[in-house]
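Troubleshooting log. The previous run stalled partway through. Resubmitting the same two chains, unchanged.
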Amino acid sequence: MTNPTAAMLVIGDEILSGRTRDANMHHLAGQLTKAGIDLTEIRIVSDDAPAIVAAVKALSGRYSHVFTSGGIGPTHDDITADCIAAAFDAHIDVRDDARALLQAHYDKSGQELNTARLRMARIPDGAVLIDNPVSTAPGFSLQNVHVMAGVPSVFQAMVASILPTLTGGEPLLSQTLRVVRGEGDIAGPLGDFANRYPDLSVGSYPFQKDGVYGANLVVRGKDVNALDAAMAELARVFA
Amino acid sequence: MTNPTAAMLVIGDEILSGRTRDANMHHLAGQLTKAGIDLTEIRIVSDDAPAIVAAVKALSGRYSHVFTSGGIGPTHDDITADCIAAAFDAHIDVRDDARALLQAHYDKSGQELNTARLRMARIPDGAVLIDNPVSTAPGFSLQNVHVMAGVPSVFQAMVASILPTLTGGEPLLSQTLRVVRGEGDIAGPLGDFANRYPDLSVGSYPFQKDGVYGANLVVRGKDVNALDAAMAELARVFA
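Second attempt completed without errors. Output:
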């Protein structure tokens, strides 16, 4: 059985300008791996409508799922919901179900549901809301695109809301052997090893610290017994 | 004058699987911003030849420069150089200039330039080598694609080698005002402010920590005087 595939689309000028580091990619990657959904591509684009629309179209056609982060708040630069609607040619406006969630939230906190906040209730027709237990303003899924906030605590809560509703596959397991030898010495026997295990994926991730050269050899696969057997052999090869 | 544009292509199974966090995007983003080259898109793809070739073709056609990281070491999963050659239909083999660099390096350290290490001298015809003062094995530029290592210390050294050779534009300057108010309260006046300064880019990056809601308001532009004047007004708006 092949696992479902996924792409992530990060909408974020602030990452492309070097102002901040993204925290959501690493979180989503780990969660999808556990769920048996293969994250195959990530794209980061700026807060530019044509770029967002083009990326959504390209990725949603190619992968089982697309997860987006960023651009669904109340400010003028929050344009993701409108871009998703445009990508699928869906009508978008303030939707009653989302408005009711926000109204209840702001009534409780004594704040006004003003025009800006109401922007967060703009949801495309046909979309299913994604629960936001942190700050109420919902994400949404339209077809195979899951639209989530950029603030890490909210992003993580939305991932926790949506993931159990998706059909996963077999989790990809991985084991790592750390070898303190230059990759040039490892490469020959490692290539032979990889050829002997065509059902496993074998990667070498070099490091270099304080003048010491080495590599983390990572073996990935879905069958725990095959993986254990391979790792035992790998340890013998580089003993 | 418009600045040159750039995309980054990260080749890395280990990031997509959630095993490691990428460290190179943030570094390159900061360096390009300083150099006046607008980083407009980042893609992360797995160690998969068709995916790498397709991304190189798409990005090199669209942007002034493409910077890649990862996949140029000596192991079986290092396939970037061959993919770049394929993307440009260029011949690739062990090249004398790269081999000479490696031979001198390994002679000095008393290590053997074996078949695996010689893989790092595979350079496409027509490419210009990128100096690697850390560990010798060179990167290369083929047309507008600059191919660099994934190990952060080496990546950074290669960026330092290549950037001074590229024509930059006017650096994009940015200033930040931190406002401890919910984005829903900020959004109206911020949108009006952004409309008054069409030559500046105005972004709101919300945060939420220990129950406190706020946003970093970031204004970007190339003219330091215009930026200073705008920031003074922004401070008055949210005083």
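Takeaways: Residues 99 and 121 of chain B are 5 Å apart (CA to CA). Chain B has a mean pLDDT of 95.
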